[in-house]
Specification:
alpha+beta; Alpha-Beta Plaits; 2 domains; 3-stranded antiparallel beta sheet; 11 strands; 32% helix; globular; binds cytidine-5'-diphosphate; binds magnesium ion
Length: 244
Amino acid sequence: MDKQELEQTLVLLKPDALKNSLTGYLLSQLSEFHSGLHLAGAKIVAVNRILGEEHYAEHRGKAFYESLLDYITGSLHYDEAWKRRVVAIVYQGPDAILKIRAIAGPTNPHVARQDKPGCIRALGTLVPIKDAEGNTISERMDNLIHASANPADAEREIKLWFSPADIPPMMHAYETEVCDTWYGYAGGRLITAPEPGSICLFAPGDVAWTSDLETIRRLAQGLATAESLNYIAAKYLINDARIA
Ligand code: CDP
Ligand code: MG
């Protein structure tokens, strides 16, 4: 497969899409017939706070950030914890990032309806975010779908949501490596030998993203890294009942 064929993007069908029974419609809009792209990976994820925080790290501190975390974890759309899900998908093919952004449409559903009727986000809603005094300080945009914005975001996001084992080896767009060391996670800490209640991140023989292993080795040595331990750990904590 040539390099252009390997372009990948991350799509999330957000909790409002599931709640409004739009899952099938969205998948149809994104299908190979409409987009010319292939499915490379897919999973159902009960989004924990760690994953939500890492996915939206660039928005940390903004007025809508806490509300956005409540949205992506599903707690705004479902009272029952077991219904809180997101469908995470990797699409692959030439210009995958731009094609899916175009089908999704503008971030703000009002703008989407005005500028691009028929796009997915034109079906979204806007919800005012208020402070303790009841003043509107921002807006939450329930816009049904996430789509990576550029190649750097796509790589960061796909590696955050998917381990190499979730994607067929011949469809890997990013470098992988076989791990030769045990690394685990316990109470937000990196550990190098199992402890009671700890979660295994990497075991010898596991295939991992090379960049994750480079980061974890630096973290184990106490060196500075671009990404945090939680960024590495998040995908190994997905759907683990020990992490709320
Ligand atoms: O998703 P996209 O890359 O188009 O937009 P973003 O600016 O990266 O924002 C990420 C997500 O935060 C959006 O898709 C919205 O769901 C949400 N958001 C919000 O709730 N309120 C805002 N004022 C801006 C963004
Ligand atoms: Mg974005």
